[in-house]
Every structure is written in C-alpha cells, then in structure tokens.
Amino acid sequence: MKAIVQSPLYQFQNDITKVFTKTGTHILWQLKPKNNADAVKEASLYYFANAAPLYVALSPSLVSSLAAVDLRKQNWTAPVTVGANTWYRAEKYKARSNNSTEYSIIFRLEEAYLLLAESLARQNRIADALPYINPIRQRAAQPLLSASISQQVLLNEIVSESRKEFFTEMGHRFLTLKRFGLLSNLMQTKPNWKDHHRLWPVPQKDILLNSNLNPQNPGY
C-alpha cells in the first residue's frame, strides 16, 4: 500500500465533487460502461425520486452517522420525501444519461489510504497512521484526529470512516467488518443475517470429490 500512496502516478483528490469523475488521478481501477454515453450501473441502481424506493435506499443508521456538515452527506446523498416519510438515495454518480464523465470506480486511492492507516494503527503507530485518515476527513469538512487518540479509538474511527467513504461501493462494508471481526453488527440493519454467514458453505460437489474437506462449515 505504501508503494501505491507514494507513487507519482496517483494524487489525492481534494475536491469532493470530483471524486467520481473518470479523469481523476486518485483512481487506480475503474470500469467503462459497455456503450459510449451509457450511465454507469450505480447511477440507476440507487436512484429513485418522487416515490418510495422500489429496491434500495440508504439505511437510517448510515444516514445518521453522517453529520449535517459532512460534505459526503451533502454531495453523495439526496433526500427523497414522500408524504411524511423521507428516504435517502446514494448520489455518488450523477450522470444518468449522455454520460461522458463517469466510469464505475472499483479501487481508489482513499482505500489504500485507509488500509495503510489501519495497518499502522494495528502496530500502534498512531502518528504515522493519521496522515492517511485525516486527508479524507478534511475533504469531508470533518475535524482532524489528533495524535493523542488511543489505538482502539483510532481503529474504531477507521471502521467508521470506511463506512462513510465507501457506502454503495463494491461491498466495502462487508469486507471491512469481516476484517475487524465485526460482522455481527450487520444484525442491526439486516434482520436475516446469521453469524454463520461469515463463511461460505463448502460446495457439496467438492466434498464428494475430496472427503478431507469435511466437516462442512457450521450452519450449512
């Protein structure tokens, strides 16, 4: 990760309104739509307006975690009010027709920053970790973390920052929670979540071919 963040090929994007613009030098990997002028799939998947969402909306828990002054809430989410109810949609990708500015981002520099901050924090190298989380907070108009922060609080902040930064991006939340041993937190927003879902089942056809793969993972 350090080689990535130190590479002259990549530069942190300080303007939050340009994070999802395809020309950004903070983008390591992105996918072009099949046809020119097509919107990326995220632009339509998470979009709804003037009606209750048919498929998906941002969870109240996520929305409440974003402060009103957080520029991610202002620029990457949008409220939709119908009657007495208000939902929030993801608004990271904005070109829903005649798209000439956006590709689907898979991996951007901010992920490398937070992974490096996590690695350093786990070594209790607090001062070394802060330069990789504070730029993300600063861009979102959030207070910077100080060197007096404890190791555990810093790790908690990294989990929280990852959630606020990467919501609706390629399953980041699941992987972060799994890495931190926090997948049980999903029970708060996913009522069908079971603890054994942390692991996939071993395919039965593979077990039949090789009995040494037994026992099957718990819960399956």
Automatic annotation (TrEMBL):
Carries keyword Membrane?
yes
Q: What is its main location?
A: membrane
Q: Which family does it belong to?
A: Belongs to the SusD family.
Q: Which InterPro entries match?
A: SusD_RagB_dom, TPR-like_helical_dom_sf
Coiled-coil boundaries: none
Q: Where is the protein found, in the record's own terms?
A: Cell outer membrane
- Protein name stated in the entry: RagB/SusD family nutrient uptake outer membrane protein
> Would the keyword Cell membrane be found if you checked this record's keyword annotation?
no
RagB/SusD domain boundaries: 86-185
UniProt entry keywords in alphabetical sequence: Cell outer membrane, Membrane, Signal
Name the Gene3D superfamilies on file: 1.25.40.390
Q: Which domain of life is it from?
A: Bacteria
Fetch the Pfam families from UniProt.
SusD_RagB
